[in-house]
Amino acid sequence: MILYLLYALVLFAQSGLTTQEATDSTSDLDLLIVTVATDETDGYKRFADSLKYFNLDVLVLGMNEEWTGGDVRVTVGGGMKVNLLKKALGKYKDNQNLVLFFTDSYDVVFAAGKDEILGKFKNFNSKLIFSAETTIWPDASLKSQYPEVNVGKRFLCSGGIIGYAPQFWAAINQWDLVDTDDDQLYYTKLYLNEGIRAELNMSLDHTSKLVQNINFARSELELVEQETTSRVKNVKYHTFPSVIHGNGPSKVHLNYFSNYMPDGWHSDTGCRKCEQDLLDLSSLEQEDSYPLVQLSIFIEDTMPFFSEFLQRIEKLSYPKSRIALFIHNNEQTLERVVAQFLLRHRSKFNSVKVVAPHEQVSELEARQMAIERCVAVNCDYQFSVNADVQLTNPDTLNFLITKNKKVIAPLVRRPGKLWSNFWGALNIDGYYARSEDYLAIVDMERRGIWNIPFMNSVYLIKVEVLHQLIDEVGKPFSDGDLDPDMALCSHLRNEGVFIYLSNEYEFGHLVVPDLKVDSEVHPDLWQIKANAKDWEDKYIHPGFWNATLSETKVTQPCPDVYMFPLFTPAMADAIVELMEFHGKWSTGNNEDERLTGGYENVPTIDIHMNQVGYEKQWLHLLATYPLKVVQKVYPGYDSKAHSIMMFVVRYKPSEQPFLRPHHDSSTWTMNVALNTHGQDYEGGGCRFLRYNCSATQIPKGYALIHPGRLTHYHEGLQTTKGTRYIAVSFVDP
Questions:
Q1: Which of 330, 488, 565, 730 gives 20 to 30 Å between its CA and that of 709?
Q2: Helix (H, G, I), strand (E, B), or coil: what is residue 550?
C-alpha cells in the first residue's frame, strides 16, 4: 500500500503538472503526427482542427482511397493502416531526432501541443509507447501473456502509438499482413514478444499520460479548465492526457468532451466556435439565389394550438419561394385547419405536397417519402418540423442554415420543464441518459453549439447527408424496433455524421401533446395547465401583466371597483361560442335544479362552468390571474380564490334585459365582458346603488372586480339592443 501511494505521488509530480514536463529538453526533437483517413468526415475535421489549434504537423495517409481494412466498427480489421504506414514512413526510418505519433483520426482530439507531448514522451525513457486500456481486444486468449501491472491499464490499444522513427519503422515491418488483418492484434503480438519488446524498448502508457482511451474509463474522467483551455483529467491517475481517443462505443463521450476541449465552450469566453465557418445569406441579393429548402411538417396526432403552429410556420422569414412544402397529416380532425392554411398561403411556396389522413401513410413511411421527395426536387436542405414545435423565432430557419452544419437542431423545450428535443448522452442500450451539462444547456446557462447523440422534433439536414443515408442504409428512419427519430440518429452516428444543437437564441418551445379533451369547440381552452405558455399567449390579454405591477394604477370606475384587461378577444369569443354550442341556458326562473336547495333568489339566464366541464380550469384561472390584481388592490385580504358559482350570463331585450338590485354571495366578484359594446349590444353595465356610480361600456375581455357583500349593492343595467355576454364569478363565498 505504501509503495502504491509513493507511486501515485510520482505520477502526480510527473503528469499532473504539464508545464513542468514541458521544460524538459526537447529542442533536439521534431514531432510529426501521423494518421490514416480515407474520408474528410466530421470526425476527421474535428481532429484536424485540434491539430491546427496546437500548431502540430500532420501526415495524413489514405485520403480519398477506398478503405479495404474491413468494417472495424463491428469486427476485426485495420491492417490497411499498418500497410499504409509501411509505404509512407520509409523516408523517416533513419531520423533519430524525429518522434512519430500515430493516432486514429475520426475519433481522436488532441489536447496538448508539441512541448508537452515530447516532454511526456522523454520521461517514459522508452523508444516506442502504445496507449493502454482496461480490456483486451481482439484475442482474449492472450491475456495471460501480458505482464502484470501494479497501477494502470494492462492491455495495449493501437489507437495511439508514439516512438522514435527508427523504432517505429522497425515495429511496423516485423511481419507482413493483409489489409483485413487486425492491426491491434499485430501490435499486441509485437508487444508480447519479449525479445522484440526489449529490442525496441517498448512500453505501455498505463496511466494515460499521453493517450486516454475512453472506453471503460469514463468514470475516471472529468473536464477541467486550465486558463483559456479545457482539458480532460484522469482523476484516478492524476494525469492530463495529451490525446483523447473515443475508442469502441465511447465516441458519444468523446463528442461530449470535444464540446469543450481544447477550444470549445469556456466559462470565461462562452462559445468560441459559434462564429466559425458560417454561411453568409446576407450577400444573396435575389430570392432565387437562396438554397431550396424542403420544409417537412409531420402531424401525427391531435395537437393543441395547431392553428398557432401553422401561423408561425407562415411567419418564418426565409423566402417562401425557396421553400418546398411537404405535409404529412395523420389526424383527420386537423384536416380542415390544414386546408384553410393552404387556401391562404399555398401560392407563396415553391411547391406543396400533402399526404392526407385517408391515404393511411404511417409516420415512418411519410418521413421516407419526405427525404426521397427532397432529393427528387433537388433541394439543398430538409427542414423537419413536428406539429408539437412552436417556432416563435421567425429567423430560426435562416439561422440554422448560416451555421453551415450537416445536421443541426434548434433547442426547444417544454416551458418550465426539463423535457427538450435532445439527449446529451446515451445509456448502454442507446436510450436517454443525462449528460453532465444537460441542465446548463436546457436552461441556457451555457449557450453555444453542441455535438449531441440524439435530436428530434425539429432539425435541418443537408441533402448530401440524405444522399449518404439513402445510399448506405436505404431507409434511415428504420432500425429494428427504434422509433423513426432514434433510428435516424443511430444511422447518423454510425455514418460518422455529427448531430449539432444550437441554443444560442430562443427558437421556440414544445407543447405537451393533446390531452384528448372531449370538446368539439375550442379544445385549447383546456390547456390552461398542461400548456400554460401557449394558453397565456392565446387567451390572456397582453396588458394584464402590466396591471399586476406595483407601480401601475388600476382603473377605478367606482369606489373599490377595479377594471383591468384580462382576456384576449380570442378568449372572450371562445367562451361565448362554447356556451352557445352547449346551448342549455337556464330559464331565468327562481327554481334552479343546478343549485343546492334548488332555488335562486336573483336568477339570470346563464350556463354554469361545470355544465361544460370547465369548472376546474376556471378555478385555476381565478387563482392564477385575477387573484394577482385582487391582492394588489385589496391589501391585507388573503383570498383563496375559491368559488362554487362561476357562470356566463346572457342579456338581451327579448329575454332578460336587466338584473334587479342585489348583493352577491361572495367576498369579491369578477365580471368579464365577453363582447363589444356598441357593436354587439347597446346599453348594459353595472350600477352600484350606494355610490350612485355605474360602470358601463366595459371593453371586451376586461374584468370588473368589486366586493360582493355588504357595501356594493348593485344592479345590472338594461341591455337595449343586441346580446350582451358576461362571465361572472362569486369568489370566496
A1: 565
A2: coil
C-alpha span between 575 and 522 (Å, rounded): 9
196 three-class SS: helix
Cell numbers linked to 265: 465552450
- 569 residue type, one letter: P
- Judged by phi (left if over 0) then psi (alpha if -120 to 50, else beta), residue 270 lies in left
Q: Amino acid identity of 619?
A: L
Q: Could you give the domains of the chain?
A: 22-207 (3.90.550.10), 290-510 (3.90.550.10), 523-731 (2.60.120.620)
Q: How far is CA 399 from the centre of its chain?
A: 15
Report d(CA 325, CA 313) in Å as an integer. Answer: 11
Q: pTM score > 0.85 for this model?
A: yes
| Sheet strands (E) in 552-620 | 555-558, 561-565, 606-608
- Is residue 710 left, alpha or beta, with left meaning phi > 0 and alpha meaning psi from -120 to 50? left
Q: Residue 545 — φ and ψ, nearest 5°?
A: -65, -30
In sequence order, the 6+-apart residues with CB closer than 8 A to the CB of 355 are: 326, 327, 328, 329, 361, 366, 369
Using one digit for the tens of pLDDT, what is the confidence trace for 448-506? Answer: 999 999 999 999 999 999 999 999 999 999 999 999 999 999 999 999 999 999 999 99
CB 241 within 8 A of CB 234: yes
Residue 476 identity: P
User: What does the alpha-carbon distance between residue 175 and residue 161 come to, in Å, rounded to a whole number?
Assistant: 18
Non-local (6+) Cβ contacts of 563 within 8 A are 554, 555, 556, 557, 695, 698, 702, 703, 704, 705
Number of Cβ within 10 Å of residue 188's Cβ equals: 23
**pLDDT tens-digit profile of 389-431?**
999 999 999 999 999 999 999 999 999 999 999 999 999 999 9
CA dist 55 and 486 (Å) reads 38
Residue 179 grid cell: 489489409
Cis peptide before 262 (omega within 30 of 0): yes
Task: Report the catalytic residues.
Answer: 724
- The SS3 assignment for 30 reads strand
